[in-house]
Design goal:
Helix content: 55-70%
Radius of gyration: 41 Å
Number of strands: 8
Shape: elongated
Number of domains: 1
CATH architecture: Up-down Bundle
Length: 444
């Protein structure tokens, strides 16, 4: 029976383990780029830009229109003509024009021969596709940054949870020792009560941290577009700490933010040219071919013997339009476009300044974090040694419980400080990588 229970428990454990998805940072980023709605919408915008190009290109292609109509005129309009035409000089004769039935079918084709707005629009449409492609890259980089920060937050909370669980286990062992001494009359009840309170507080803190871990995991799943019902875990890993990440200065020309703004500036330049194109004349070629049937009877399917007569007609022509004066509307549009170009220039300068500002701050933060990590690591080792010695002294009656609790608190504080320093380093490292335009390397 015991063997059966053991087998069932092992199977249950394996099922639960299989349901938990282990996520490395690279896997989390890849999942986000494939499933997060922001990344999907950015890809759709690139796809949609192809349709926008086709829409603009259509203006340069021939435009073909088919028209058909059927009219019945129960009362024909009459015109007053001199009676001389009808052998009635000196009189006016009212003569009806047209026929009761009239049916037409025409085909018209129009081709732009010269239209500066269309030519400019074609160039702008191609640039628009490049703009959306760059915007997709920027969206993915922003998603990578956001997911990376969230991922490391989860890692740090898990580390803090491990620290408090380790301290809780250690404190419980001390409590058991004090309990044994108290039972044998070698310890005071107040010491046992104090250590019991410490255990209760650690258990409460562990519960709070466990909830915090769950909240951070939910945040990470939201950022990568993963269902909340999915179970995830982070692999056990360590942070590599070095100053190598910022040995190369940031290159603003490689930053997607700057590239996107410059492409937007190019689009605004085309917009200005499009407005200025309203000054240019336009020339188009058009041709029409039609077929008409008129008579006293319903024309469809009828013949001349039915008093219905069919005839075709055609025309070819050039249309020239020369703008002369539109109340300075075009001039106002061009001047507005000039203002937009000046504003985008200021945006580029401000963005470059902000990016340099972020890069310098990230370098300072990373440098400080490296020093802090080294210091806190030494503090952790020293705090462990102090705690071990204090614990032995307490057992041998050479140290008070207050000394022991202080040593435990010092170890917990130094461990948390070390973990926080690691987080600050990784967050600064992400900013350095971002400043160098290499966030995509985290995915590859």
């Amino acid at each position: 029976m015991k063997h059966k229970i053991t087998i069932v428990l092992l199977l249950l454990a394996s099922v639960l383990q299989a349901q938990t998805k282990e996520l490395s940072l690279k896997e989390a980023l890849q999942y986000a780029l494939e499933n997060k709605s922001d990344a999907k919408k950015a890809k759709l915008s690139v796809e949609n830009s192809n349709h926008q190009i086709a829409e603009v290109r259509a203006q340069a292609l021939p435009q073909v229109t088919l028209n058909g109509g059927l009219n019945y005129n129960p009362i024909l309009q009459e015109s007053a003509l001199p009676g001389d035409f009808f052998g009635q000089p000196g009189t006016i004769v009212m003569v009806p024009f047209g026929q009761e039935w009239n049916s037409t079918a025409t085909a018209t084709i129009t081709q732009n021969l010269f239209n500066q707005s269309v030519f400019t629009g074609l160039k702008a449409a191609k640039t628009t596709r490049e703009f959306y492609t760059i915007n997709q890259q920027l969206t993915e980089e922003q998603l990578i940054e956001k997911v990376s920060n969230s991922y490391y937050q989860v890692y740090v909370y898990k580390q803090k949870l491990n620290i408090i669980e380790s301290n809780l286990n250690s404190t419980k062992k001390v409590r058991d020792i004090i309990k044994g001494q108290f039972d044998n009359g070698l310890a005071k009840k107040i010491d046992y009560d104090r250590i019991s309170v410490k255990v209760s507080n650690l258990e409460a803190n562990r519960l709070q941290l466990a909830n915090a871990v769950q909240l951070q995991e939910n945040t990470l799943k939201f950022f990568i577009g993963m269902p909340m019902s999915e179970k995830i875990s982070l692999p056990e890993t360590t942070f590599d700490v070095s100053a190598e990440a910022f040995t190369t200065e940031a290159e603003m020309s490689k930053r997607t933010e700057i590239t996107l703004l410059k492409k937007q500036e190019e689009l605004l330049g085309y917009q200005k040219k499009s407005f200025a194109a309203e000054y240019y004349p336009t020339l188009s070629l058009n041709g029409t071919y039609g077929y008409q049937g008129i008579g006293k009877e319903f024309p469809w399917g009828a013949k001349p013997s039915d008093n219905v007569y069919w005839t075709d007609f055609a025309s070819v022509g050039l249309n020239l339009r020369i703008p002369v004066f539109n109340g300075f509307s075009t001039r106002s549009k061009v001047r507005q476009a000039d203002v937009s170009l000046k504003k985008i220039e200021e945006d580029i300068k401000e963005t470059e300044l902000a990016l340099n500002y972020g890069f310098e701050n990230a370098k300072t933060q990373m440098n400080n974090s490296i020093i802090n990590i080294k210091t806190q690591k030494e503090n952790v080792n020293l705090a462990k040694e102090v705690l071990e010695n204090t614990k032995n002294n307490y057992i041998n009656g050479l140290a008070s419980l207050t000394d022991l609790l202080d040593a435990e608190n010092a170890l917990t504080e130094s461990q948390n400080n070390y973990t926080t320093a690691q987080l600050e380093y990784k967050l600064a490292e992400i900013q350095i990588i971002k400043s160098k335009g290499e966030l995509k390397n985290l995915v590859n």
